[in-house]
Every structure is written in C-alpha cells, then in structure tokens.
Amino acid sequence: MKKNILLPIIALLLSACNPDTWNLDVVGMVSGSSAGIDQRIDDSFRYNDEHGYPVINATGESYNVFVATDTHVDRSRTNWKQFISDYHADPDCPLAIHLGDLINAQNHWDYMIEPLSDLPADPLKKDTLLAVAGNHDLYFNQWKEYVQRFKTSTYYAIVRTPAGKQDLYIFIDTGEGFLGKRQTEWLKSTLTWANSQGFRHITVCTHTHLFKRDSSQGHTSNMPLEETYALLHLLKQNNVEMFWCGHDHSREITNLGSLTSIIVDALFDREPHPAYMVATCGDEPIRYKFVELTPLVD
Questions:
Q1: 121 by DSSP, 3-state: which?
Q2: Could you tell me the sign of the dihedral formed by the alpha carbons of 17, 22, 24, 30, in that order?
Q3: What is the pTM of this model?
Q4: What is the spatial distance between Cα 252 and Cα 270, in angstroms, rounded to a whole number?
Q5: How far, in whole angstroms, is CA 262 from its chain's centroid?
Q6: Would you say residue 7 has pLDDT above 70?
Q7: Among 33, 28, 46, which Cα is nearest to 182's?
C-alpha cells in the first residue's frame, strides 16, 4: 500500500481510540490545510488595503495588553470565557491579543466567538480582540472560516496614548510554520517604516515560536532554521522589543539582548497548567506577568 494512502488510515485509527483526540495534529495534517500562505497573504492584504490598519486609543500613558494563545475551543470554553471577562473588566486594557489555535478542529467557530457577543456594550472595548492564525485554525480547510471572522492574519495595529505616544503591534502568519517570501518582504518594509516613526515599543506577534528546547510539538515545533535566523536578525536589527508566540503550550522566556521572546502558556481547558499573560506598556520597558488559572478536571 502506498504511503500516502496508509498515513490517513493510521491517523484515523489512532484518533478513534479516544474521543478527545479525534482531531490530533496528525489528522489535520493528512487532511490537508486550507489556503496556502500565498492565498492567505492575498486575502489579508486585500482586507488591509480596503480597511486600513487598526488605531486604538489608550486612556492613559500606561496600559495593559491581555495575551492568550492555544485556547483550542471545542467542547468547552471555560478558560476562554474567563480570559474575556478579565480583560474586559480591566479599565487599563485597550486591547487583547490571541496568538493562534483559537479552535481545535471544525465546527467550533461560532462556539468560540459567542462569548464576545455576550459582553456589555463598551465603546472603548469595541473590536479590540486582535488575532493571528495558528495551525489548528487552518486544518480542515478552515482559513475561510478564520478570515470570515478575523478578516486578516498579516497586519499591524497602533496603540496611541493621550499624549500622542505610539506603540506598534505587528502580526505575522506562521500557521504553516513558515513566513514565505511575500510576507517576509512585507515585514521588512513595515519594520523599516516603523523605525522612521519613533514608536515607543515595537512588538511582533505570531503563533509558531522561534525556538524551543524540546520537540514536544514534533515537526511543527519550529520554523525552518534559515527563516529563524533571518527573522531573528530582522527583529534585532529593527529595534523590536518583544516577540510573543504560542504553539508549544508551555511558557518559555528567552532574552536576546534587547529582544525578549516569550512563548505564552496555552489556555486550553484540558491543559494541566493554563495561563495567560498581561503585559504593561508605558515609558519603561514592557513588563509582563502571567495569570494562572485553576486546571479543569473533566
């Protein structure tokens, strides 16, 4: 039997052993992802060109950013709802960020989005959840679902303080584990522009991490080494202060001179150590802390 026929059969047999694991990475991989990086870039850039880039007004010179990743919403969303409630209740939080793998597999997008519509009306909090696509958001041809709700996965957002100081958040799509040529060129030009604008802080947000000391995520653990080296050089060369990512489900902080890379803990309900990050952005270097949630027992 040919290998390309055997792999899907093995994947389905493995996934059938446990109803909680039917949507393992291997199943998503052999089923094929949705639109490739070029199509996702086309869709994202088209939206950016038509609608521009978000500019968010903070109420003070210092503000908080709530950062979640890897919620993997499927049959429960307790930690996700807690995160939404916490960031919405913080008067110093003008935006929240999700670093990808919002859902676990097919048919969970409405269930994942629904808690956002339950929030009380607050003009300061409107449209302030920004996201980037993860690998699970692409499996099973789900890019069309992602882009319907979040519109773009390669873009930037500006936070402006009352005194006119500005911070830049750049979002790049690494849902397939690599950047691609066009996205890399966009990132280069965006960082060149950013360094001419005098931003107070520059932060790059994505899903796949630059490096990890174990191989717990298998083949999807890191980007290709050539891209990792090139991206790291680009970040450091252009005064990027923070690189926030997820994917591995376990916290890791790496300091590389003026650049800090943070893998944020997963917020998945069945995660043994769920947590999210709160970053405080002001005139000093960005500070951060982690809010650990109580593990849920099925």
A1: coil
A2: positive
A3: 0.88
A4: 20
A5: 12
A6: no
A7: 46
